[in-house]
# Entry
Amino acid sequence: MAVYAAHLTRTLQGTPSIFQIAAQEALGATVKPALKRLAEYLAVVNPQRYAWCERWYDELYLLLDFCLQYHYLKHYASSFSECFYGLLRVPISPSNEFHSGVRLPELLEKGSLLLLVLVPYIKDKVEQIIEKWREDNEDGKLGKSTSNQARKAAIKLYSIAHFVLEAAKFIQLARYLTGRTLSPTLDFALLGLTVKEAPPPEPEEYCWSDLFKSLWAGQIGDVTLTFPLLGRGLLNIVQYGAFGVQLLRWWEAKASPVTSLPLPTPPQKSDQAVRWKNKCPVCLQPWKVPTVLPVSGFVFCYGCVSRHVRANGTCPVTKLPTTERTLVRLYLSG
# Structure
């Protein structure tokens, strides 16, 4: 009877809005790039000690993400970002839930962990390989051999698969908005899950506010520092730290666009510029897929300038800030 009541309590919670769904997805997608920036900074500051962090970052994040998501799925039946926004995973079929009470059934818990951690890791690795092949293809490095033709086919197949997947996500979300399905995403639909608003948390017997009150009142003997208290504090730091990073990314997106920067003075022709006329300033070879960087006006090979801008965010010659979105392809007649 108690398990049945627990199920009713969870099922009768309010249905989350689309804004909550989008917000938790945005928060989840923010953590990995933010930590990668930190790893890159450490590698630059002290390469002898921290270079391995950047080299093995994907694997390190895989381990961290596994531990974090497992903890939240086990104790809150939700992912890290879902828990932050007060959301809860609930099986659509109630018969499976009666065996586990407030926790997800073991099979759904493992499936959720797989889709939250392992699938994104594999997807990122595949994207890195496809991006490298795409750059090689744009640079003209992929010839007519069987292996190169297979790489070109893989690039096209991946583009088609990516389009189909994004379209399927949009359709699934539209069906959720119109009430035709209870699963807001494809992952939830695959596992047979829906999402509900979590019930209010039970009040804690001893929390951080009590600890600080005891310290402020000088009652040192009443101060109790327990492992669960430290754990909750650490998780709160992780949650609000991720939210802070998301806020900073939003602030950066609202910053002045590159087009608002003052126009740079035209560069003076040097002996080197005359000697390497109609050649890329990076590789010093004839242009392959000539591409102009509007912030400086220099023309590069697409592969050369895209790699540099993606890694440094600046023009290779003038060092002016720019983004990969500003690159413009040139179509030069013979």
Summary: The mean pLDDT is 77.
